[in-house]
């Protein structure tokens, strides 16, 4: 028993502190469903925004390449 240098009061105090500071979430099924749908919607919007940005970048690069081939400056047009 000499190897245990902690007291039970310290352990319980740490557990109580952890329980008090932990964020509680409502456990209702409707809340979980709503949170799931919001997460899905946010993920879908992020993917769409990334795809849109990729298409715009591709379009700009294509325009730049074409203007360089024809010897025109795209900034002046």
From TrEMBL:
Biased amino acid composition, Basic and acidic residues: 22-53
Residue ranges of the region described as Disordered: 22-77
Ranges of Polar residues composition bias in the record: 67-77
Protein name as it appears in the record: Uncharacterized protein
Record organism: Rhizobium hidalgonense
Top-level taxonomy: Bacteria, Pseudomonadati, Pseudomonadota, Alphaproteobacteria, Hyphomicrobiales
